[in-house]
Amino acid sequence: MKKSSAGSSGRGTTSHDPRKTTSGEQKTVPSKRKHRRSGKDTMETQEYQSEAGPNGAGEEKKIRERLMEFAERIKTIKIQSAGQLEETNITIQEIHELCLRGRERFMSEPPLIKTPAGICVFGDIHGHFADLSKILDKTGVPPKQRLLFLGDYVDRGSYGTETITLLVAYKILYPKHIYLLRGNHETRAVNRMYGFLEECRTRFGEVEGNRMYTLFSHVFNSMPLAAVIAKKIFCCHGGISEHIPYDITDIGLLCDTIWADPMTINKRFDGSPRGVSKVFGQDAINDFCDMTNIDLVIRAHQCVSDGVEATHDDRCLTVFSAPYYCQESHNLAGVAYVDTKLQVQCYQHKSSYDPIKQTISES
């Protein structure tokens, strides 16, 4: 894992900030305001709890032990060459239980998560499980580390099943130490076309694969859409919306939260080249931050060369956590750590399977 800053270059550029070195020097994302801690920045471990069933506490203990064994088994899968995994032997019964308990957990949370500072923020994963596992080895996992994921767990990569089941298992076990937001690939309209439906069918056969896909879809439909860290940092998958002044039920707002992109434009919002949602400019991000008393927007959704990229006068930070994306883009993975003083430290991770990035040394 390398420590670095996010450059202030415009959208689409791959140039490095002149103050950044490939050896991974650490610095903070610049801020024009002094952040103040809000509320408690520490939190005791809240582990898996649910209503005692007919068999009482003994049954709950068995459920917890079963979930912990599953999470440990998935986290320690052996990684072969080129990021391929050994056979994981995830069963239909395990997925069924994870999906039912995971959906129950997500349904107990509001669509907007409020969390203290002292948390690692991840961008897109896209089934890059081998790289995710190595990054988690560096950051730590719940309950020792608090994590916030900004969506897009599946599609593109080969191991969406391992990715989402591990994270959901952690969510069930340690609900206050990990938050999973919904991305645009956590929708049927997208993931039925870009790989996850086919992954389910390949693993479990067409009939059971369709059933597993439906169970996962129910989980995705229950995920929260955004998070606010210590009342000052807004996090979502896509971006802000011109519909913010209106009711949350406005479908445009929900769409923009998982689809919108920042862009250097001379207007607040404009049509997106994706054909969905909008792009937002400097004036839009300024208005949003001033209206909501937010200092920084952290979002994902776009592959950036350095894994992290600060734009819009350092008020918008893009984080992308899938390195060597689709085995085509020679990008690094990025993770942003928001410390208890609300300073943002950006870290980079190189993929072990990218022949170009292998030449970059880690610190």
UniProtKB/TrEMBL annotation:
<keyword id="KW-0904">Protein phosphatase</keyword>
<keyword id="KW-0464">Manganese</keyword>
<dbReference type="InterPro" id="IPR004843">
    <property type="entry name" value="Calcineurin-like_PHP"/>
</dbReference>
<dbReference type="GO" id="GO:0046872">
    <property type="term" value="F:metal ion binding"/>
</dbReference>
<protein>
    <recommendedName>
        <fullName>Serine/threonine-protein phosphatase</fullName>
        <ecNumber>3.1.3.16</ecNumber>
    </recommendedName>
</protein>
<comment type="similarity">
    <text>Belongs to the PPP phosphatase family.</text>
</comment>
<dbReference type="GO" id="GO:0005634">
    <property type="term" value="C:nucleus"/>
</dbReference>
<feature type="region of interest" description="Disordered">
    <location>
        <begin position="1"/>
        <end position="60"/>
    </location>
</feature>
<dbReference type="InterPro" id="IPR050341">
    <property type="entry name" value="PP1_catalytic_subunit"/>
</dbReference>
<dbReference type="Pfam" id="PF00149">
    <property type="entry name" value="Metallophos"/>
</dbReference>
<keyword id="KW-0479">Metal-binding</keyword>
<feature type="compositionally biased region" description="Low complexity">
    <location>
        <begin position="1"/>
        <end position="13"/>
    </location>
</feature>
<dbReference type="InterPro" id="IPR006186">
    <property type="entry name" value="Ser/Thr-sp_prot-phosphatase"/>
</dbReference>
<feature type="domain" description="Serine/threonine specific protein phosphatases">
    <location>
        <begin position="181"/>
        <end position="186"/>
    </location>
</feature>
<dbReference type="GO" id="GO:0005737">
    <property type="term" value="C:cytoplasm"/>
</dbReference>
<dbReference type="InterPro" id="IPR029052">
    <property type="entry name" value="Metallo-depent_PP-like"/>
</dbReference>
<keyword id="KW-0378">Hydrolase</keyword>
<dbReference type="GO" id="GO:0004722">
    <property type="term" value="F:protein serine/threonine phosphatase activity"/>
</dbReference>
